[in-house]
Design a protein that fits this description.
Layout (H helix, E strand, L loop, with lengths): L1 H22 L6 E3 L9 E3 L2 E4 L2 H7 L8 E5 L2 E4 L2 E3 L4 E5 L5 E5 L14 H4 L3 E3 L5 E3 L2 E4 L3 H6 L16 E3 L6 E4 L2 E3 L5 E3 L3 E5 L2 E4 L1 E6 L2 E5 L2 E4 L9 E5 L9 E4 L2 E4 L10 E3 L13 E5 L2 E2 L11 E5 L5 E4 L5 E5 L17 H4 L4 H4 L8
Parallel strand pairs: 1-3, 1-4, 4-7, 5-8, 6-9, 7-10, 8-11, 9-12, 10-13, 11-14, 12-15, 13-16, 14-17, 15-18, 16-19, 17-20, 18-21, 19-22, 20-23, 21-24, 22-25, 23-26, 25-29
Antiparallel strand pairs: 2-3, 27-28
Length: about 375
């Protein structure tokens, strides 16, 4: 008798719990599935489902006051994408199996027959605030080595081989990347504006593969130099931080690695100062702190970079000692002490924190 009474008492609560589960909001606003066979936007198991990321982005609200999360199932999505709506979150199923990829280089012709140029070569462009990506690979799959192997008189050989995987453009701010991979060769990550945070991510490339004027923190990331099979295997950073901006790129507790064990030692520079159009106000800032550095990084560390021309038409060379390039408390065979690799004092290093570089913004890991 007592058991029957307890069952009667529990039934309303059990029914209420079941109703709450049935009416609870799905964890994602949309799902992208390369294997989806229905129409784009068809509701499957309670969530609108799309075959392409572009279709899911087009269907997203214009002004999201809260996160609009799009889950991307395993697949290789060959798409050239722009995110111009705030609060878009792209969540991949697995970084190793979920790819956003495109293969445009600066010299590649667009549908109108014009060259994309560096800024137009992106695979993914962010031009709205509060973007977030997790568990994704974003790559520019332009075949750098195949193009380089072509004869110089081959009309199909591109001269402009910049190939951006990710561009953070005007209006981008507070963008977060967790457990993501960015891959290309030349100009992988173009952080052009805003504040951005990368955590436990991989950025791979060869020439100037992290560049631009943004304020960016790389926290516990792998920075991988890809082999060009040459004595000069490129440059990691090319910041163009404006002089009025106190911080640019901060690498903290990162690992500077080489793509293959046989990459030539002493063949990669930490970076060089980029002055777009010779702009004297672009005085790059890049700091490597508490990083593990392999032997591919050169003893010199930093090198000069050309930009603009003087009144006599001569190319101006901007020197790294005039930029804001420093290291602090790095380890490993590539953490070499040399006159050209300036080290912060303990007091100076205190100014370079995640909080200060991001100007008070606290990203959620």
């Amino acid at each position: 008798m007592h058991e029957i009474i307890w069952l009667l008492l529990l039934c309303p609560f059990t029914l209420l719990h079941a109703q709450e589960k049935a009416t609870s909001k799905p964890p994602y606003a949309a799902i992208v599935d390369a294997q989806h066979k229905g129409q784009d936007g068809k509701v499957v198991n309670g969530t609108s489902t799309y075959r392409t990321i572009g279709a899911a982005l087009n269907a997203a609200p214009e002004n999201n006051a809260s996160p609009h999360a799009i889950f991307i199932r395993t697949g290789r999505y060959y798409e050239k994408l722009s995110v111009d709506k705030p609060n878009i979150h792209l969540i991949g199923e697995n970084r190793e199996t979920t790819f956003i990829t495109y293969d445009a280089a600066a010299g590649t012709k667009d549908p109108q027959g014009k060259s994309y140029g560096t800024r137009g070569s992106f695979t993914l462009r962010i031009s709205a605030p509060d973007f977030r990506a997790e568990n994704l690979t974003i790559e520019n799959s332009f075949d750098y080595h195949a193009n380089r192997a072509k004869a110089d008189d081959d009309p199909t050989k591109l001269r402009d081989t910049q190939a951006v995987a990710l561009l953070t453009d005007q209006n981008s701010d507070r963008a977060t990347f967790i457990n993501c991979t960015l891959s290309s060769h030349q100009d992988t990550l173009f952080s052009n504006t805003g504040r951005h945070y990368f955590y436990k991510s991989i950025i791979a490339g060869s020439v100037d593969f992290i560049f631009g004027a943004g304020q960016v923190v790389f926290d516990d990331c792998d920075i991988i130099s890809r082999d060009r099979y040459a004595s000069n295997n490129g440059y990691i950073v090319a910041p163009s931080t404006l002089l009025a901006q106190p911080f640019g790129f901060l690498f903290t507790h990162c690992r500077l690695k080489k793509e293959t064990p046989n990459m030539q030692a002493n063949s990669v520079s930490l970076g060089r100062p980029w002055h777009p159009s010779g702009n004297p106000q672009a005085v790059g800032s890049a700091i490597f702190m508490h990083c593990e550095i392999d032997d591919h990084i050169s003893e010199q560390g930093w090198v000069a970079m050309g930009g603009g021309r003087d009144e006599n038409g001569n190319r101006i060379m901007f020197q790294p000692e005039d930029a804001r390039f420093f290291e602090y408390n790095n380890t490993g065979p590539g953490a070499i002490t040399s006159p050209s690799r300036r080290i912060l004092t303990d007091t100076q290093a205190q100014a370079y924190t995640i909080h200060s570089v991001l100007n008070g913004w606290q990203p959620h890991k």
